[in-house]
Amino acid sequence: MLAVVVATWAGRPITGERLVQMLVLALPTAGIYALAATGLVVVYTTTGVFNFAQGAVGMLGALLYWQLKVADAWPTWIAVVITVFVFAPLLGCVLERLIMRHLAGKDIVTQLMVTVGLLLGLVGVANTIWDPNVGRAVPTFFGIDGFSIAGVILTWHRLIALVVAVLLVVGLRFLLYATRTGIAMRAVVDNRGLASLAGVPAPRVSMVAWMLGSTLAALAGVLIANETDMFSLGSLTLVTLVPAFAAAALGRMRSLPLTYLGAIILATAKVFSDLFLSFGGRWAKVPDRFPEIMLFVVLLLLPASQLRFARITTMRARARPASPRHAAVGLASLIVVVPIIGASLSATNLSHLTEALGLALVALSLVPLTGWAGQVSFAPLAFAGIGAAAFARWGGGAGHPWAILLGAVAAAPAGMLLSLIAVRLQGLYLGLATFAFAFFTREILLDQPFAFAGQTLNTPRPHWFGISLEGDQAYLTVLVVVFAIVAMGLVLMRNRPWGRRLVALRDSEAAAATVGINLLETKVAVFTLSAMIAGLGGSFLAMFYTKPSAAKFEALAGLGLVLQMVVGGIALVAGAVFAGVFQLPIQILLNRFPDIALLRGLESIAPGFAALGIIQNPQGAVVAIGEGFAPLLPGRSDARAALGAKRQRTADRYETESNELGLSIPLTDRVIADVERALGASSELVAERR
Amino acid sequence: MARLVINAVSVRFGGLLAVDQASLDVESGAIVGLIGPNGAGKTTLFNVITGLQRPSSGSVDLDGKSLQAKKPHARARLGIARTFQRLEAFGSLTARDNVLVAAEMRKRWNHERYDAAATTDHILELVGIAHLSDAPAASLPTGNARLVELARALAIAPSILLLDEPSSGLDEEETDAMGRLLSQLAGEGLGVLLVEHDMPFVMEVCDRINVLDFGKVIAKGTPAEIQGNPEVQRAYLGTNVEAP
């Protein structure tokens, strides 16, 4: 770090005055970060759910405040009260009731992806209500007045931000340590089941936590709204999102004092670099990425987590993987059907379909990594970006089919790097580390001179074996064949020793180690394989775009791809097809009816709503589709038998239970739930039992 | 002939001394019991032996070589296998695949030429769960899932086997079968360290018994000696009169 400071030193002397300036500038921002991070920590510690949508709630708060204050010209204090004290708690309450309550005891991938879906969904909602292309400015409280300290103006607005943050810090301390609610909250943190038995109303505590978290997020959003020059929705979400992650990570998601320290470090580092350092040229964007860098570094420095024991929640039986024979039939039909569909589409829609398949190839990289080995990664599109850059820079137009492997080879070292982190981190922390990595890759790595260098790179489509791939139709055909080959390879691998080993690793790392599985070696291998598949996908995307740039590989878009993959079914290659083509129907409709605003909204909101399906259907939509559809196919008597057996099992269970209890009505899940509610069993216990 | 020696192992969790200078040993062909009240540190000791928990002090040696620097998978490859008190079967794999994974691993690290699939089927037969081969482990009742773990542990052909409450969840008949199986395996040269709460079962199958209380080994001896030991009765049986 010192080396970075020395290398970028701008040569301005450090004076007492400048240091005071630094604090004056940094502390209010630190306060706002602290507010956002505190909301995160309170919710995480009391409910076990890490809320990716925290920043989006802040964004909604900021936009609503703008709407009331600026567009509708309401008095400031009314706008603040409505936004922060009415809208935000209500939103938290609704979210807890409708969604978050059902996440208790779910596995980490489901928990994370539902809040990621909420993040994308809320951004979509905001996009629909407030046109993202219109600039909006929020005035500061009390204008630009303030008082001067050491030559810089501390505006009233920033003073208020600082004072509010400090008051809330003190207030929360009081709440958590000196009130019944707070003590109940901390009890729930320590042991939810036990707290329930001791009479702590865990559902109510969880609701209070969400309302509080939401309020803090909205407050942070309102306070920081005027600080962001670009009032675009994505950036507004991120202004508080990643800093809050980084600060909370320093406090290991638990300690509030360390979280505040994290917020202060982060805000100070930014101001310090503004005042004393100069990152020119290729590194110009580094100061803006301090939050991601700090998040990554903090996660690296966390003590290695204990080997993961299986938790009851992850012991749920999963869908059996497709047999190689069925997969071969399915993939062969894909090779036949997709080009035919492509031929019937208009040029624009054909292009959408081709891109969808490229993305599906990238999504395929998650099947072994997350689907089998259980390693959370939010960076598939980042690997694809690295692959695309490598191919565009060195393989573009080379014409030789083997050049396509450049992307895979280039992405492999990045995969290896992340795997070394995966050995130390798990679940949420690994997800956050890969998220930070995705941002860093997009914003800094891909802009380097050896990558995209901030431009688009000409990447003509080649002629392979005398066939021109310039037309979308030809390219689509090649792409679907490549997808089918990679997918088939994965299906075969799943039924090989190595595939079984990965699943064993996911189900119980501790047990996997005690039968002699080398966790390090296995993780390195699966991360590298995954990165190579994504890199290969990146090469194909680069050729698809013909003029790719770093902007095609946004971190948030990658998050969306992972989400769609989870919705589809992350352990199955069919899930990757689902993930790729998820947006296609909306895109095609939008292409046909460009004026229907609802469709435009749907395009951005759909991923969020799809995420809600994960709660009901954690194995993925393709499993449900398959169970319903396969029995209709000729030659799938096994599927028919399976469906029949499933129905019979359900019927049997209800009948036996009813008979044993001497009941005259079938004992359905709903009835059981009603009885349990009447008996006062908490919903968590019921959820756990399922 | 293999010999596992636990030498003055202590494990401290914050202010709690979970294991306190515990020493015991297990050699090929012996079934050694490890009993003690809940929270006595039995599972923690298992975790130390298998490398999942680093001891605060003390050492674990196998055949005279320290396991100190060995990772869990390396210890497995040296011949230490275990089952878990709280089930750790690979839930989404079938019972057969649970065992197969282990058999394949052994083949991999030994560079042995043998048929992992046939070995797997043999072990499933031996443990008596061949009829459950195709059931996902997560769908099995506790007792059966424990047998899957036992089969999985056997599949790496261990020289020392650590069993953490193998009989819980089994009915009387199954427990008897388990006892016969352990005796048979010991007869073939396997060393077994058995944590168990079912006293008749322990007294029946064990050659020697170690009693752990508050992390300390408070008594060692044959089943008869242990049953007659007043200190054991006070610490272990006396608190909760539950005559075997």
Supply the helix-strand structural class of chain B: alpha/beta
Overall pLDDT level of chain B: 90
Roughly how many Å is the radius of gyration of chain B? 17 Å
Number of strands of chain A: 4
Tally of helical runs of chain B:
9
Task: Give the overall shape of chain B.
Answer: globular
Number of helices of chain A: 30
- Strand coverage percent of chain B: 25-35%
Task: Report on the architecture of this protein.
The complex is a heterodimer of chains A (690) and B (244). With 690 residues, chain A is an all-alpha fold. Chain A has 30 helices and four strands. Chain A has helices at 2-8, 16-47, 54-71, 76-98, 108-129, 156-178, 180-190, 192-197, 202-224, 233-250, 256-276, 290-301, 324-343, 347-364, 366-372, 380-395, 405-424, 427-443, 472-494, 497-507, 509-514, 519-545, 555-568, 573-581, 584-592, 597-616, 621-629, 637-661, 669-679, 683-689, and strands spanning 146-149, 152-155, 463-464, 467-468. A two-stranded antiparallel sheet of chain A has the order 1-2. In chain A, a hairpin with a 2-residue loop joins β3 and β4 (467-468). The longest helix of chain A has 32 residues, at 16-47. The model of chain A is unreliable at 311-317 and 682-690 (pLDDT under 50). By secondary structure, chain B is of the alpha/beta class. Chain B is 39% helix and 25% strand. Chain B has helices at 42-50, 72-77, 95-110, 116-127, 142-155, 172-187, 199-205, 223-228, 230-237, and strands spanning 3-13, 16-27, 31-35, 57-62, 65-66, 80-82, 160-164, 191-195, 208-213, 216-221. In chain B, α3 packs across α4, α3 packs parallel to α5 and α4 crosses α5 (142-155). Chain B is globular. Chain B starts with a strand and ends in a 7-residue tail after the last helix.
